[in-house]
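STRUCTURE:
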């Protein structure tokens, strides 16, 4: 066996033990996240925390709880923007909203909400379509620091031009500036949006369904899971959705090769929007 091959096997063994330790110590389950992505993130965390091996990183994180939030920022995806992939939101307006209007009240689940960009985007879209006042958005994530940022409803002002362009391309019916107040380098989004969103901790790896919803939006999250965890997540989404409810996932994701494929009908192939089939 070559030295490089031995190093890889050693790293993989230490990583497996580390993920088990995290689960036992903190109840966070990363054991079924995509292996290649995990290796990159763990390596970056090792550099940040000054550790020469995964075993050394494990010792620090297990014995020093203050290190865990730092690690969590590396292990969870915190890259998003408002109205990301505008064509997705345009498809929601054109193909999903007319059907959502038929419900007397709406519940929507944004799974893996990060710092809240997608949750606020959906709140704005629903406001523009006259549905926000009868809607409740559940925005969930496993990263407590990200949820705290999301709850603040404040985003850096330099991000606003990109947000504004995305909003415009999504079929906007107003100016994005109508929904926030800018001051001191930040943009505070309207309390009337925030009050329709419930931010909460939830893990797709370990937790169960908590509500019946008409729309699940979980985009660019499944790509970080292995096949087993993707299956679990899609099962949760199907269980959570009401009869003929809607599921939106990321542009690089699909339900096609899942065992749940027969339980969803493709509504928009380009934008990865599906409709639940059966009960």
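SEQUENCE:
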């Amino acid at each position: 066996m070559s030295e490089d091959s031995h190093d890889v096997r050693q790293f993989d063994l230490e990583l497996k033990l580390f993920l088990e330790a995290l689960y036992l110590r903190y109840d966070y389950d990363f054991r079924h996240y995509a292996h290649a992505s995990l290796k990159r993130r763990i390596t970056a965390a090792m550099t940040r925390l000054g550790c020469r091996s995964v075993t050394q990183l494990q010792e620090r994180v297990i014995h020093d709880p203050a290190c865990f939030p730092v690690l969590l920022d590396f292990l969870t995806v915190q890259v998003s923007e408002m109205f990301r992939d505008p064509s997705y939101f345009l498809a929601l307006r054109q193909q999903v909203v007319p059907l959502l209007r038929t419900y007397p009240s709406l519940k929507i689940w944004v799974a893996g909400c990060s710092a809240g960009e997608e949750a606020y985007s959906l709140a704005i879209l629903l406001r523009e379509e006259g549905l926000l006042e009868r809607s409740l958005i559940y925005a969930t994530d496993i990263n407590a620091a990200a949820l705290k940022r999301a709850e603040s409803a404040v985003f850096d002002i330099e991000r606003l031009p990109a947000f504004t362009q995305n909003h415009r391309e999504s079929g906007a019916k107003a100016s994005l500036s109508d929904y926030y107040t800018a001051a001191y380098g930040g943009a505070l989004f309207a309390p009337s949006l925030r009050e329709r969103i419930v931010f909460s901790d939830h893990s797709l790896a370990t937790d169960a369904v908590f509500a019946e919803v008409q729309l699940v939006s979980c985009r660019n999250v499944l790509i970080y899971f292995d096949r087993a965890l993707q299956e679990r997540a899609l099962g949760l989404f199907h269980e959570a959705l009401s009869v003929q409810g809607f599921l939106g996932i990321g542009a690089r994701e699909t339900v096609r090769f899942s065992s749940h494929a027969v339980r969803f009908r493709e509504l928009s192939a380009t934008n990865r929007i599906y409709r639940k089939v059966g009960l």
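REMARK: Residues 262 and 277 are 8 Å apart (CA to CA).
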